[in-house]
TrEMBL record:
Record keywords: ATP-binding, Kinase, Nucleotide-binding, Phosphoprotein, Serine/threonine-protein kinase, Transferase
Signal peptide limits: none
Organism: Lithospermum erythrorhizon
Protein name: mitogen-activated protein kinase kinase
Residue stretches making up the Protein kinase domain: 48-315
CDD domains: PKc_MAPKK_plant_like
Domain of life of the source: Eukaryota
EC number: 2.7.12.2
Length: 323
């Protein structure tokens, strides 16, 4: 539910998973109070002061909040009680996945609760620079989006994806507005509303959910680019989305279309499935060029996995710190 820059207008959502997929993913309601991991104290919504709105979207709101007793700052993601059942199902899906993950590269969930009015909320760590969308928009503000910085971002997202994929979770909506960042350029994956828990390591996907601008070719045409039978490899699809995101960071705009173009669904599909990979300037290092090529292979079987990409020369020796 992060804010998306108006100038790109690429947040083109597709339908939620069908009912058969929902039945395979049990989603228990959260308790009516939360227990923070820091002090093991049971808290209620009244224990937090709303400081500002961080974003709107998909039936809910994200707030910057302060715990009154400790003054600790958090992000509170709230889906309103009058939201339709699909939106509520999305946040319950996200809660279920966040409870299964424990990685410094995935946004931390401190607790969940259902308010008396029917709102469902997730209390999460606060990332003070917002999303990578903000980083792109603010490149003029002392942020030099060079290869070194992109490599640091790439390694962190890869480690987050490697953790998710090892736990048989595919994100299905990797994009700049779903990657949170703080002032030290520590990056964490967020927004798991359309993610999927796989029954088996190579369990195929067949639901058209997410943001179509960042979808891989096999998600539009699995017969040509995927595993066939109307399915696609969700793990490989996440890698495509990462490659496109990194290319956008480097170029400063969505890379598959001319800057400023307002796309529709058909234009995006044609650009993704039939367009050439964006050309990079000669000044780009061979390591970066190779890394992007490994991510943006149209044939999904030729894309490297997250664990393999972590060994790529572009990111292998990258050093950063995570608090």
């Amino acid at each position: 539910m992060a804010l998306v820059r108006e100038r790109r207008q690429l947040n083109l959502r597709l339908p939620l998973p069908d009912s058969s997929e929902r039945r395979r993913f049990p989603l228990p309601l959260p308790p009516s109070s939360i227990t923070t991991t820091s002090n093991s104290t049971t808290l209620a919504a009244s224990d937090f002061e709303k400081l500002q709105v961080l974003g709107h979207g998909n039936g809910g709101t994200v707030y910057k909040v302060r715990e009154k007793r400790t003054s600790n700052i958090y992000a509170l993601k709230v889906v309103h009680g009058d939201s339709d059942s699909d939106v509520r199902r999305q946040i319950l899906r996200e809660i279920s996945i966040l409870r299964r993950t424990d990685s410094p590269h995935i946004v931390k969930c401190h607790g969940v609760f259902e308010k008396p009015c029917g709102d469902i909320a997730i209390l999460m760590e606060y990332m003070d620079e917002g999303t990578l969308d903000n980083l792109i928009k603010n490149q003029s503000k002392n942020i030099n989006m060079n290869e070194e910085l992109i490599a640091k971002i790439a390694k962190q997202v890869l480690q987050g994806l490697d953790h998710l994929h090892a736990h048989k979770i595919v994100h299905r909506d990797i994009k700049p507005s779903n990657l949170l960042v703080n002032k030290d350029v520590i990056v964490k994956i967020s927004d798991f509303g359309v993610s999927k828990m796989m029954c088996r390591t190579l369990d195929p996907c067949n639901s058209y959910v997410g943001t179509c601008a960042y979808m891989s070719p096999e998600r539009f045409d699995p017969e040509t680019y995927g595993t066939g039978g109307g399915n696609y490899n969700g793990y490989a699809a996440d890698i495509w989305s990462l490659g496109l995101t990194l290319l956008e960071l480097y170029m400063g705009h969505f890379p598959l279309l001319p800057q400023g173009q307002r796309p529709d669904w058909a234009t995006l599909m044609c650009a993704i499935c039939f367009g050439d990979r964006p050309s990079l300037p000669d000044s780009v290092s061979e390591e970066f060029r190779s890394f992007i090529e490994c991510c943006l292979q149209k044939d999904s079987s030729k894309r490297l996995s997250a664990s393999d990409l972590l060994l790529h020369p572009f990111v292998k020796d990258v050093d950063y710190s995570v608090s």
